[in-house]
Amino acid sequence: MSEPVPDPTSPTSSDPLDSQTALGTPDTRDTHHAVTGPSADAVPSPAVARPRRRRAVRILPAATLAALVAYAVLVPWWAGTQTADFARALLPPGPGQWFGTDHSGYDLFVRSAEGLRVSLLVALVCAVVATVLGVAVGAVAATAGGRVDRLLMRTTDGVNALPHLLIGVVIVALYPGSLPAIIASIALTHWPQIARVVRAEMLSVRSSEYVEAAYLWGASRGQVLGRHLLPAALPQALVGLVMLVPHAVWHESTLSFLGLGLSPDEASLGTLLEVARGDVFTGAWWTLAAPAGVLVATTLSVAGLTRALDGGRPGRRRGRGPDPLPVTLPPDGDTSPDSVPPLVRVRSLTLRLPTDDGRWVHAATELDLDLRAGELTALVGESGSGKSTLASALCGLSPAGTRSSGSVVVDGREMSGADERAWRALRGRTIGLAAQSGAGTFTPVRRVGPQIAEVVSALGTEETVPELLERVGLEADAAELFPHELSGGMAVRAVTAAALAGRPRGLLADEPTAGLDPELAAQVLRLLRRVADSGTAVLVITHDLQALETTEVADHMAVMYAGRIVERGPARRVLSEPEHPYSRALTAALPAHGLHPLPGMPPELTDPPADPSLTDRTGATDVVGG
Ligand SMILES: Nc1ncnc2c1ncn2[C@@H]1O[C@H](COP(=O)(O)OP(=O)(O)OP(=O)(O)O)[C@@H](O)[C@H]1O
């Protein structure tokens, strides 16, 4: 269900410079310096010594843990079955018994190894069960979103808030000495951390360009989950699993120490500690020190390993998810002057995007636009005027929480209020989107060709990768390249090839010329013209009026400013005789028209003017045209 568009007068204004500041994110890359000069070899400088120390800090926990695991596996195997020998009871540590003996004469070096083996096994099973539960809950929450997500996250918070040990004690007290009860008591209280980490990781990957592109190119939620979200979240889940092991060791040990855990026959470290309680009062401190030392060494090494594993992971940005466009309002009659119905007909489309601080971005207001087969329409305007928001809406990919009204008819079908299934049937097939991010549209770790082949197979067409590449002017061996190996021009072409994989009747190209030099920009625009000439309805979103003017590829042009289309008409006319002051200012900024900069800054879209004109620009001292 869609929500009504909020009252435009309700949002409060904000400082437009805020968003500028946000764009200027400081470079946070590591700036370690290499040591130069003759003395560098002779005397290691602090800059060289520090990485070595860091390497040692990373290796030490792993080596300690490996030694402890070897100790737990090999020593009981080497020692065989021990029998009680009361003649050797409570011997202090010495040459014949390194860790001393307990009150039954058992060698504590062997006994602690057996205890560690049991504790590690129990902890590992608990951690695996908790991780499977956590991954399942996190994945469902991240992919379902909405109410399901909220319900699962509240449950997660609830379980997290419970006193774990108390719950463990209650469960184990109901089934005393039962191993499954011990595992359940630990696993059922420790999955929330994993669920939170997995959900957060999946949400951040879900907003990445290549996942958005996967949806655009027809992938189902299940395919996105299996191909992108789960593989991205699993390393974090694995780190979580390793982190859970020491927790589980401590919980199991505590339960056993309280006499609620395993029986002394299957001694864990906790059982040994519990048995040692009585011996300590006789002065035999080593009976407690041996298992306690092993427990502490295990916990510290796992904790150190966890930090080393977790330390190298880069952060990811959060962003928007692929929620369907909740468009409302009844379809209206075809008001187009042309007889051929457009492939896409937009009428009075209004979109309000929520901000984190409760305001609304007026990203699109009362937009009308037609896209027709065989025609290329250019949508121009400054950054932030709402062009990409419109393109996303035409694919049913508005940001979560978007409020909207108006009509979007695609191929004769009113898509107002259409559900995700309806949009998915249309994405990639009826409308293809070549997204703005170029090479970022592809998963970075795989070659481009197989990724385009996946799009073809998801959309079920007869296209082949070599044919698609040829169509966009790329050599067949470009398929073998990784995304980072593509030049800017090649990346745009590869993205266009993927967008054409479903033989769409409409193509939206978002900033295809961004970052390209004039010659490459012109080549890309001519490529899109050829796509239009083959009968496709093409929308090109661009800032690059210069390239449009040079190539003359556009049939129509719409000028967008502050969320509104302020002028529209034949491209040649709009470029040569713009009518709206903003269109005049845009063309006046071109080198061929005198390079007059636009005055001031565009208005803030959380508080836009009712009738945008150049006079509403903040900081404007000079108004061009008029
Ligand atoms: N997910 C979002 N949530 C809230 N506001 C958003 C979101 N995405 C974009 N906006 C805002 O919507 C407005 C229009 O953004 P949009 O990206 O559509 O502009 P644009 O003209 O395509 O600019 P650019 O060329 O830089 O992409 C901007 O004010 C932007 O900050």
UniProtKB/TrEMBL annotation:
Query: Which SMART domains does the protein's record reference?
Result: AAA
Task: Output compositional bias ranges, type Pro residues.
Answer: 599-611
Q: Where is the composition biased (Low complexity)?
A: 10-21, 38-49
User: Where would you find the membrane-spanning parts of this chain?
Assistant: 59-79, 118-144, 165-188
Cross-referenced PROSITE patterns: ABC_TM1, ABC_TRANSPORTER_2
User: What are the ABC transporter domain coordinates in residue numbering?
Assistant: 344-587
CDD domains with a match to the protein in the record? ABC_NikE_OppD_transporters, TM_PBP2
Keywords annotated in UniProt: ATP-binding, Cell membrane, Membrane, Nucleotide-binding, Transmembrane, Transmembrane helix, Transport
Question: Keyword Transport on this protein?
Answer: yes
Q: Give a yes or no for keyword Chloroplast in this entry.
A: no
Q: What's a single GO CC term here?
A: plasma membrane
Region of interest (Disordered), ranges: 1-49, 311-341, 595-626
Subcellular localization, as worded in the UniProt entry: Cell membrane; Membrane
Q: Name one GO biological process term.
A: transmembrane transport
The record, for PANTHER family, names: DIPEPTIDE TRANSPORT ATP-BINDING PROTEIN DPPD, OLIGOPEPTIDE TRANSPORT ATP-BINDING PROTEIN APPD
Which family does the UniProt entry place this protein in? Belongs to the binding-protein-dependent transport system permease family. Belongs to the ABC transporter superfamily.
Q: What is this protein called?
A: Dipeptide/oligopeptide/nickel ABC transporter permease/ATP-binding protein
Q: Which organism is it from?
A: Nocardiopsis eucommiae
